[in-house]
Structures are given as C-alpha cells and as structure tokens.
C-alpha cells in the first residue's frame, strides 16, 4: 500500500517544513509515502468561499484515481487514539488498498464533490489547528502508527 497526503498551499514556516521532512523521511522506512502539495488558488481573495472550495476540489480530484481510497481530514470525522489509528492503518493495509489518500483541505474546508468522493472522514481533534500544523501532526501520527504496529519503543502507553 502507498499513502498519499494531499494538502493545499505550501508551508510558510521553515521550522514546520523541517519537522515535516524529518517525519516524512522516518515514515518512508515503513511504507511508500508521497506528500503532494497543491498550489494555492491564484487570486483567491477575489473568490467567494464556495468558488474557492470548488476550485480546490477540482485540483484535488485531478490527483485521485478511481481505485484510491480517499479520506478527508474533517472536524466532524471519526477520532482515534494513536493505537486505534495504528489498527485503522493495519486494516487498510490488510484490505488490499493500493493507495490510501489523506486530504487536508483549504481554509474553508472541502467542496461537495470532495465529500461525495470521500470514503471516510477522520478528525485529529475537536480543536481547530492551522492547516500547516495539521500536516505535521498527521505525518507524525502516521509514523507513530507504524512504530506501534512494529512494537517499536517510540510510543509509550
């Protein structure tokens, strides 16, 4: 299985970028991983929220294949403990999925088209985080999940 993480817009903080790169490198020891950053929509300040979500949705969908399993990060999604998330990943791997795609939306969330295509919604927290911080948190949780599955000492219970 491959995991693809799709996010809208580049990370502005060099510190966050460095941390993301560290966990991305660690994660690649466990699974094939791709981090795809879709550029911000040009002139988005002149667009309504609905139009911006629609345009972002079109860009996201252009990177999704028919067989991909699409999971959106959404505040109304299912929440996991780290151990539960590792078991979630194991079930996905056992099911024969070729590409598990996790998507972090733009500042206004997702278009209806993305929600219709989405197979599941997950949430990292009931709190709201910046889209840039979510990237780091998610990649770290993916790494943590694989260390849990391998009984490695990274996670402490």
UniProtKB/TrEMBL annotation:
Leading EC class: transferase
Residues annotated to bind S-adenosyl-L-methionine: 73, 105, 124-129
EC number assigned by the record: 2.1.1.177
Entry GO terms, CC: cytoplasm
Source domain of life: Bacteria
Protein's recorded name: Ribosomal RNA large subunit methyltransferase H
GO molecular function terms noted in the UniProt entry: rRNA (pseudouridine-N3-)-methyltransferase activity
Subcellular location: Cytoplasm
Record keywords: Cytoplasm, Methyltransferase, rRNA processing, S-adenosyl-L-methionine, Transferase
The protein's assembly and partners: Homodimer.
Chief place where the protein resides: cytoplasm
Reactions catalysed, as given in the entry: pseudouridine(1915) in 23S rRNA + S-adenosyl-L-methionine = N(3)-methylpseudouridine(1915) in 23S rRNA + S-adenosyl-L-homocysteine + H(+)
Function: Specifically methylates the pseudouridine at position 1915 (m3Psi1915) in 23S rRNA.
